[in-house]
Automatic annotation (TrEMBL):
One of its GO terms (biological process) is innate immune response. This is TRAF-interacting protein with FHA domain-containing protein A. Keywords: Cytoplasm, Immunity, Innate immunity. GO terms for cellular component: cytoplasm. It holds the Pfam family FHA. It comes from the Eukaryota. The gene is Tifa.
């Protein structure tokens, strides 16, 4: 047998790509402690914690408005399944966290969608999961965005769309204000 045949099977690793944005990054450098463009391993039995306390969090955000521990990510496998998932948990008592417009209060958690935007305060983080097979660890790969992620990705706005399908912003851009009419009036 050749060495090639005896070598262990190479398995793929789940990788969480995270792209960070804050409007004051250039002047305040709140991401200066994050290691961009280098993949880092996180053991499956550990939590990846994000916040400003460097004694507790591996991913540090240098901003006094960020909680000591802002949020955590936990790698797990679903019951009776081979599917691996990441769970996000808000660990900030002061700041709500939103994941694709779902609001998480303190200690609330949810499965991280395969592609989502995480927001708290002025922070925007695009998270994208690249699936893998490894059970021992997952990887993080951090990136820095130059433009706001919400605008860059053209996500749908949070404004409700009226039943008639005409957006009130059309009227406002024309200097007109929509008025409500009773349908029984002539």
């Amino acid at each position: 047998m050749s060495c090639f045949e005896e070598a262990e099977t190479e398995e793929t690793v789940t990788c969480l790509h995270m792209t960070f944005y804050h409007p004051c990054q250039e002047e305040k450098m709140m991401f200066r402690c994050l290691d961009f463009c280098k993949r880092e391993q996180v053991r499956a039995d550990e939590m990846a914690k994000f916040g400003r306390d460097s004694n507790i969090c591996h991913y540090n955000l240098m901003d006094t408005r960020v909680s000591r521990i802002q949020f955590s990510l936990q790698f797990y496998r679903k019951l009776d399944s081979s599917e691996f998932c990441l769970e996000i948990k808000n660990l900030s008592k002061r700041t709500k966290l939103t994941v694709n417009q779902t609001e998480l209060g303190y200690l609330n958690k949810m499965d991280l969608p395969w592609k989502c935007i995480i927001c708290f305060g002025d922070y925007q983080i695009l998270a994208e999961i690249q699936e893998g097979e490894s059970v021992d660890y997952f990887e993080t790969h951090l990136h820095l965005a130059e433009a706001p992620i919400l605008q860059e990705r053209s996500l749908p706005s949070l404004q409700p769309i009226p039943e008639d399908g005409i957006s009130p912003s059309i009227f406002l851009s024309q200097g007109k204000i929509p008025t409500e009419i009773d349908e029984n009036e002539p």
